[in-house]
Amino acid sequence: MASTGWQDIPPLNQNDLHVIAQSIWKEIFHKNAYTNFPQIEYLKDKAGVSWCDLLQKPKLLSTLVTNDAILQDTSFRNVLTWARSTGRCTSFAVAVVRYLEEYYPGAYDFKYYDLGGHRVARCARSGILIDSSSKEGAIRLVDGEWSTFENEGPRWKWKDGISKFEGTDGKMASSTPGAPFQK
């Protein structure tokens, strides 16, 4: 019997899915500039300070630029930088998920979560979490257990269809699935 191509490949197990997601997470993270520098540059320019000033006094922006000043700025640059409430976390999760779902159709089933302004994607089939703030890349969440890296940094938990996130500042957010750009 002649081979029909990729259809002959046995289904991927959870470990295979995690290894693939980890590889793609790292490739996309290192290939693209997923940073907050456009936002920092906007604040720097709004404050009228130089990069040298900012590097010497990292907290300078918080004393010179208020939330009200940002909210009242209707410039095109401000709208592109802030108004859509999307940033590194959203664009990164979408890029990784699109790649995985395009090249491994039917293997993954990702849903997006907005955890209080921080967006992640989690695969319902494998428990794999795509989060730009991860220091380790793609991780697999086990239902009901908190996951961290080296017992520090942010923590994630998945339980009964709800994704939970606790940041390094101790703030907790939880969410049910939504669209990647949904507020």
What keywords describe this structure?
single chain, 183 residues, alpha+beta, 4-stranded antiparallel β-sheet, disordered N terminus, disordered C terminus
Summarize the structure.
The chain is α+β, with helices and mostly antiparallel strands. It has helices spanning 14-31, 37-47, 51-56, 60-64, 67-72, 76-83, 88-103, and strands at residues 110-114, 119-123, 128-130, 139-140, 147-149, 152-159, 162-166, 172-175. The chain is 38% helix and 19% strand.
Description of the molecule:
It contains seven helices and eight strands. With 183 residues, the chain is α+β, with helices and mostly antiparallel strands. Helix 1 crosses helix 7. It is elongated and about 60 Å long. The termini are far apart.
**Secondary-structure element order, N to C:** HHHHHHHEEEEEEEE
The global form is elongated
pLDDT averaged residue by residue: 76
Whole-angstrom Rg? 19 Å
The quaternary structure here is: single chain
The residue ranges in which pLDDT falls below 50 over 5 or more consecutive positions are 1-6, 179-183
Distance between the termini: 52 Å
- Total strand segments: 8
Helix content: 25-40%
The major pleated sheet works out as:
4 strands, antiparallel
Structural class by sheet pairing and helices: alpha+beta
How much of the sequence lies in strands comes to 15-25%
**What is the overall number of helices?**
7
List the strand order in the largest sheet: 1-2-3-4
